[in-house]
Amino acid sequence: MAISRSNAFLRKHDSQQLPLYVMFVDIVGSTKLSSELSPDLLSKLVTIYLQEVAYVIEHYGGYVLKYVGDAVLGYFPPEEKKNREEEEDGIDGNAASANNIVNCARSVVQVVKDGMNPVLEQESLPRISVKATADYGNNTIVRYGSDRRRSHIDIISLTMNLTAKMQNLTRPNHITIGNEFHSRLGPEMQANFSEVSIGRTKWKYHSLGASRPYKIFEDKYRS
């Protein structure tokens, strides 16, 4: 159902470029889990996890693009409008969207840690932790085939690639975001992030036209 909802949205924007927030959520140590658990138990664990993460993403107004193994790829169109409460707090539409997605990522971590893990233990399954990464930028909607209604449709962008690469520098139960995302946050939420100190040997990725590595930030929030 979640994938179908995403496909319906993307087909409305076939071959267009859209500004989107993108998010990756991945299980920590999935390779070890796959070697230690029987296929049926591993399938059960991953199914529960994927369902819970997809539910949280959709609850916060996002779309689930696809599942890649144990990774969930989601995206959020920016909402430029703001509600009355946000207007009173002086939060513009851009910051409201960005703040909402940070809260979504925090909720994913919290749901897995405090909601899902007790259930896994009851089912004699190991507890898990996750890493969430997100960024903002232009994304191209690509259809692989001539059939407008049935051909596979996907998102391709530098934003997607950088968000995936951030997973390698994200600690368990933490959130990492890119500079484009960080710059759109409201002041209070922005203050909850600190720049990740990285060497060129660990992070060599650049934004388009930049001479220095792309800045990334880690959430100080602890669930």
UniProtKB/TrEMBL annotation:
InterPro entries per the UniProt record, alphabetical: A/G_cyclase (IPR001054), Adenylyl/Guanylyl_Cyclase_3/4 (IPR050697), Nucleotide_cyclase (IPR029787)
Single biological process term from Gene Ontology: intracellular signal transduction
Cross-referenced PROSITE patterns: GUANYLATE_CYCLASE_2
Guanylate cyclase domain span: 21-167
Listed PANTHER family: ADENYLATE CYCLASE, TERMINAL-DIFFERENTIATION SPECIFIC, ADENYLATE CYCLASE, TERMINAL-DIFFERENTIATION SPECIFIC-RELATED
Name of this chain's protein: Adenylyl cyclase class-3/4/guanylyl cyclase
Origin species: Nitrososphaera viennensis EN76
